[in-house]
Amino acid sequence: MERHGGCACGAVRYVASGGPLRVGLCHCLTCRKRHGAPCNAFAAFRADKVRIEGRTQVWAGAEHGLLHGCPICGSPLFWTADEEGDDEIEIHLGGLDEVGQFTPQYEVWVKRREPWMAPLNVPQYVENRPAGMPT
Q1: pTM tops 0.70, yes or no
Q2: Measured distance CA(80)–CA(62) in Å, rounded
């Protein structure tokens, strides 16, 4: 199955193939600030399963990572690790063309969740999800 998405102006498009490695909801301060939203919903894929069309702008957007977005409209699109050997890409669910593609399997940094947001019925992590831990 393919999932299509892109930026607000259409200059950058992507296609994610197959299923994600995991789907999460992050409430950390970095995600909040870089998205201008109370949280970031994302799906992590193996990088070789995502095809990007168009040129992206890259920012050092988070600890150990790079934020990729559209240089024309400024839409944040996905995140990649800046560490050698990390072959994952986290696409932001808001960039998908169709809603309802994925449901978060866990929430991280819940200590920063807005008090008016009810927790999802999924594993909750005060800060980061431990590496290698199943969702």
Answers
A1: yes
A2: 10
